[in-house]
Amino acid sequence: MRYITIILLVVIFMFSCNNSKENTMLVKGEIKNLKKGTVYLLKMKDTLLVTVDSLILDGVNTFTLSDEVRSPEMYYLSLDRSPSKEISFFGEKGIITISTKLNKFKFGATVNGLSNQQLLDEYNNMKSQYNDKRLDLLKADFEAKRDEDSLQIDSIQKSIKNLTKSRYLYTTNFAVNHADKEVAPFLALTELYNANLRLLDTIKNSLSEEIQASKYGKEFNTYLTEIKKEKISNEE
Questions:
Q1: Distance from CA of residue 144 to its chain's centroid?
Q2: Are residues 123 and 221 both part of a single domain?
Q3: What is the DSSP letter of 54?
Q4: pTM of structure
Q5: Which burial class, exposed, middle or buried, applies to 167 when counting CB atoms under 10 A from its CB (0-12, 13-18, 19+)?
């Protein structure tokens, strides 16, 4: 009986180790021109950024950080906990590589991520195009108001509204087309929080059961339930 108990404990231990390894995320990277500093791997817990791993670098500029990922979510790589030296990325089990330079830590970073990060990069590329168009319209709106051109002002305001609608529709379609990935509810939470309920419901109904059970899937469902209750309350 004693030997059977020992064998069972060994099996449980091995299963636990294997399961842990299966969920491990490794973040490997390089910070060019860095001589000394501390890199931190952070993620949100409730409303606070917490450290899940860190490493002191002294005379080397390469690092490897890790965390056990229960559900893919946003992580942050920080140098010396400085807000100006913080890189965000979508973390999930597997190997992610990040390379950057000390003087361009945030905006000069290259992140070679996994599936969710790759989709987020694709979305952000299109989002930047929408942002550029919006900036052009805001500039034109400023000039029209300066010149007191009411017709031009009305036209530009209409264009801004149409651009916003277009971005919302693009985001909704993007999330629906990738409803089997955690990036879908993440975009709904961060990009469509004030969108029409119909668009939010469209995304929710498209999510797979696995994604609905994920971190962002649960948060999205909670958010959607709350704003529906608020809408009903306002109508009463």
A1: 37
A2: yes
A3: E
A4: 0.87
A5: buried
Which residue is it, tokens 């030296």? 85
Work out how many domains the chain is built from and give that number. Answer: 2
Compute the chain's Rg from CA coordinates.
Answer: 23
Report the chain's mean pLDDT, rounded to a whole number: 91
Residue 124 and residue 183 in one domain? yes
- Are residues 126 and 230 located together in one domain of the fold? yes
pLDDT, one tens digit per residue, over 12-21 is 444 444 444 6
Sheet of 73-79, strands arranged across: 48-58, 36-45, 73-79, 86-91
Residues 73-129 have pLDDT tens digits of 999 999 999 989 999 999 999 999 999 999 999 999 999 999 999 999 999 999 999
Is 11 domain-assigned? no
Query: What CATH number is associated with residue 60?
Result: 2.60.40.180
Sign, CA torsion 220/221/227/228 = positive
The residue segments making up the domain with residue 131 are: 117-235
Domain for residue 20, yes or no? no
- Decide if 6 is inside a domain: no
Sites in the chain below the pLDDT cut of 50: 5-20
pLDDT reported for residue 169: 97
**What are the counts of helices (DSSP H) followed by strands (DSSP E) for the chain?**
7, 8
Collapsing DSSP states into helix, strand and coil, what is residue 35?
coil
Question: What's the token pair of residue 132?
Answer: 């550029």
